[in-house]
């Protein structure tokens, strides 16, 4: 699948990060963006069946955009933090996700369901600001999934979003950029239509917004580049003879190898982890407070 819509010429690689509350269709949408079913899609609504940390969470499609790589990172649900003892594990999970998308996403897709009761529990505006900084919202697109539930009730999706949906503050912070999809659908034409709408929106976004920078990503990238430097000679000797692309293409290939390695490892390399720990420690603390509030509400409502 190739698209006519040309991306910014300076980008060799387009990095998209998908985040959102549990069971909102993140992995289903990641598959549509990637163009292959590579992300495991859960069937149960239980928290335990959420996207596991050890399974494939990133995929690079080298065909979808002419001359560009499209990296899709499907983040684990942000709210499977259960109690304060999971602090370190969750911090490592977030750190791993940051390392996979390093040196930072070109855009973040915030996946929400067309169900306010579900969304209200998670303040995505606050989460994105806390984890990535307020700038990141200007690089974000809200994606409303489960539109079939509204359609089944005869409700117009766009009317619902503009008049009833309680995510107006988030939408405003994201410049009212939003997409809608029934991500359970297998219709290829609908997938292509969604991809085209996504690419058009991304192109518009990149015309006006710089790729956002953050100290956390800068530091993480420095550490990754240090590790890359150590491997470059070995990698070059191994691949250069059979590789007919440019040096920058070979460097992208090395980064791909490193991402694969990172994904296979159940935990993050100690050096990477230490680099981001100082940034993630307070973030995880604030996420845990959020989750505690959520759990208290859940208990109170049962
Ligand atoms: N009806 C409907 N079902 C959907 C939609 N998107 C996803 N699903 C279903 O919802 C379930 C969860 O989908 P996933 O893509 O795994 O959701 P997720 O957000 O990745 O889930 P976690 O990683 O566990 O948080 C699966 O059974 C999907 O088929 C949608 O737009 N409409
Ligand atoms: Mg998932």
TrEMBL record:
AIG1-type G domain segment(s): 11-221
Pfam families according to UniProt: AIG1 (PF04548)
Keyword annotations of the record: GTP-binding, Nucleotide-binding
Gene3D superfamilies: P-loop containing nucleotide triphosphate hydrolases (3.40.50.300)
InterPro entries: G_AIG1, GIMA/IAN/Toc, P-loop_NTPase
Superkingdom of origin: Eukaryota
A molecular function GO annotation: GTP binding
PROSITE patterns attached to this UniProt entry: G_AIG1
Membrane-traversing stretches: none
UniProt xrefs under PANTHER family: GTP-BINDING PROTEIN A, GTPASE, IMAP FAMILY MEMBER-RELATED
Family affiliation: Belongs to the TRAFAC class TrmE-Era-EngA-EngB-Septin-like GTPase superfamily. AIG1/Toc34/Toc159-like paraseptin GTPase family. IAN subfamily.
Protein known as: AIG1-type G domain-containing protein
Native organism: Rotaria magnacalcarata
